[in-house]
Structure to design on (227 residues):
């Protein structure tokens, strides 16, 4: 099974800061990686698909990059409404999907 | 507007059974793969199962294989999850989710229904 390791598990940053989250796969998954945002008490929301493609309607301050085993998710300028937990998810091992453990983002 | 509304979550004893339902609207239901994903209290997301657009193919996480059964009724725009031999570790919020253009992409989620397995 493919394991997805996210880091850090939590972070605290100031409004306007650049925030970076990493996700490492236990084996090569090409670009078969998505990123989701889950605000407190809400369902997850798709932000980035295929490692670097922005889902329609998602603000451009969110971006993703990477391929193979190492991936990065970035918020270019953190906003108060970005407080959430972010998850990566691989789909190289279809039909089985695997999520990372999540990164909780808080405002300093 | 895509809407996914789950129902059926209750408190059930270990070893018991339960059937979750998901009513879908706002898209052509029988064009898409559908998923169940769960989240234990205070924990991360765990993919549970998926079913192809026509119900002909189903897949399960190892943790539920042999105990859970996913199904769909395209005439009713509905998705189901039959849960048998429930364990305390199955306690979670269960989300119904719509597959996107690619099988591995989940582009819409319901608000979830809570299943609590406890004696």
């Amino acid at each position: 099974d493919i394991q997805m390791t996210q880091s850090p598990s939590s972070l605290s940053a100031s409004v306007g800061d650049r925030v970076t989250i990493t996700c490492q796969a236990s084996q090569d998954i090409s670009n078969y990686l998505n990123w989701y945002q889950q605000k407190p008490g809400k369902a997850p929301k798709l932000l980035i698909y295929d490692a670097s493609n922005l889902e329609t309607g998602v603000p451009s301050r969110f971006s993703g990059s990477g391929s193979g085993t190492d991936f990065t998710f970035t918020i270019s300028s953190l906003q108060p409404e970005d407080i959430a937990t972010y998850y990566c998810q691989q789909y190289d091992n279809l039909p089985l999907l695997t999520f990372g453990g999540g990164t909780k983002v808080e405002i300093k | 507007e895509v809407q996914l509304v789950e129902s059926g979550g209750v408190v059930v004893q270990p070893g018991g059974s339960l059937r979750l339902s998901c009513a879908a609207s706002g898209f052509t239901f029988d064009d898409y793969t559908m998923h169940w994903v769960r989240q234990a209290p205070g924990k991360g997301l765990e993919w549970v199962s998926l079913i192809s657009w026509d119900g002909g193919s189903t897949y399960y996480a190892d943790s539920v294989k042999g105990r859970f059964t996913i199904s769909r009724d395209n005439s009713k725009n509905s998705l189901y999850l039959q849960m048998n031999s429930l364990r305390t570790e199955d306690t979670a919020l269960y989300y119904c989710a719509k597959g996107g253009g690619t099988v591995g992409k989940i582009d819409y989620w319901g608000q979830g229904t809570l299943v609590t397995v406890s004696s």
The first strand of chain A starts at residue 4 and ends at 7.
